[in-house]
Amino acid sequence: MSAESVFPFIVVVFWVVLYVIGNTFHLKRHGLEIRPAYLTYKSRGLRELLYWVSRKGVAFWRILCNVGLVLAVGQMIFGIYFLTSNLLRFAYPLGEPAPVFLVLPGITIRLYWLPYFFTSMAILIMTHELAHGVAAIVEGIPVKSTGLLLLLVFFGGFVEPDKKQFERSPTLSKLRVLSAGSSTNLLTGFLVLLLLMGIYAPPSGVLIHETLENGPAERSGLKQWDVIYAINGNNIFTIRDFENLMANVPIGKTLILNTSRGSIAVTSERGAKNRAVLGLISISNYHPSRLGLERLIGIHLYMTLHWIFLIALSIAVFNMLPIYPWDGDKFLYHALRGVVKKRRLVARMVFNAIFWSLVAVNMILTFMKHGWLSV
Question: pTM, whole model, 2 decimals?
């Protein structure tokens, strides 16, 4: 039985045990509310910290809120453009379409990525929600509660503004609050990108993520997070270098790999399309640290920052799509107040139908082209 098949069972058992403990010891009295696959912890200290931060440099936060408002409009436009143009690439030979699929830990994301994925999600959800909270307080909207949450396998935070006061606020105030989360994710993504560019050097090898069980690489002693620097004396700087070299390797040829483990001999085998393979399921470019970090520490830090960057941009764009229950839906609904006064609800339903269909068709075509993806 594979680890991927056991993972859902572990999640179910975890939530059953947690639910029983929560109800047995009445943890709700201590601010911890546990429901099936959903946990929240309301923190008075976190709420006080949020107010303290919001009242420091109010003018600065107002500028950021205005910048975030502009960015959010751009994110919404880009998200619509991306899904539409991606759909056209599926239908016409206009380039390779990007895969669009659900993020399902242990199913569409392999288990060895989960530490990076969960760390990234926790950081980004916390900053996303805290940004909403700061914007609300700056706009004069009280925050009733704030705290931590665990939803199935996703850890993060929540901020609960006063809904009645929010609805009574000016339209621009609502839009600033709604746009704060996604724009913060976008800025976080770009800051992390700058950090990656500063800390890590250009690629100088190929990093192994996963090897085929009992394949040539595994039998030769290569393992996860090993680095291939050269093959038969030919330097390998990128995945493209590796693929170009392997395209000319005959089946059954023994290759000498210069790796982080030293020199290793690997004999190629027949793979898909009768091509020689080494039994490497997943690889990426290896970027050494400019800070002189130990190799494994540098790899894990790079992967953490890389996942934060990828997920930050994904949340920033997709959360601003005008579809329920994401922020883009409420953003467009309130933005239409001055344009469509009587039929905003109808317009909201139409936008949801159009853009949910756009997302669904992209996902269906991804499945038809690639099958059940797993990264």
Answer: 0.91
